[in-house]
User: Which sequence fits this backbone?
């Protein structure tokens, strides 16, 4: 036990779990990544898919995801404006985490 | 795309990812589960291992984890009191999620 503790402590600020959680532990973050998944989604579709999220929170989360390079946003200059979101290469790499959340939920919660 | 959307929407409140996140998306939740891991940990060890967490937040999180049956708590009636935490059978099943977080962090963040 002591050994294991020391290994985890040794990571300190470099702990990979901590680093991932700093990026992904928002209440809605992984849910949004899960819903976009391998799709190209318009804002309205995403809003319907992530049921229960407020407009303000969704916009805030999407901005954060774009800033952190997990999601890319394409704005088409047309009327009405069309905005599409998709996962970046980095964002796609979070899907195995989402898969494990789904598996845990299916087996134990729903 | 539309099909996939409908599949995800169909889960509604039964969405397994949503259910898992309701349980696990706290800022410190998965970090604490990761640190306890397969160990038996005393409160003080846990406090040192989860660097940066406040005493109040750690106690609150541990109570939540015990209430949700992810962690079991054993109090030994001695002086000074000894309190040990370990993952329950359900808690151990979250470790594959933590593993994916670690893998993502190692490959992309740290």
Assistant:
């Amino acid at each position: 036990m002591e050994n294991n503790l020391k290994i985890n402590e040794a990571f300190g600020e470099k702990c990979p779990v901590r680093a991932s959680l700093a990026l992904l532990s928002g209440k809605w973050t992984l849910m949004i990544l899960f819903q976009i998944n391998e799709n190209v989604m318009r804002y309205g579709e995403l809003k319907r898919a992530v049921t229960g999220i407020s407009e303000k929170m969704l916009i805030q989360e999407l901005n954060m995801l774009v800033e952190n390079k997990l999601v890319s946003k394409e704005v088409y200059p047309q009327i009405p404006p069309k905005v599409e979101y998709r996962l970046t290469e980095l964002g796609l790499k979070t899907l195995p985490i989402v898969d494990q959340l789904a598996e845990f939920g299916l087996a134990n919660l729903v």
Notes: Chain B touches chain A through 50 residues (CB under 8 Å). The longest strand of chain B covers residues 71-76. Strands of chain B lie at 41-42, 71-76, 82-87.
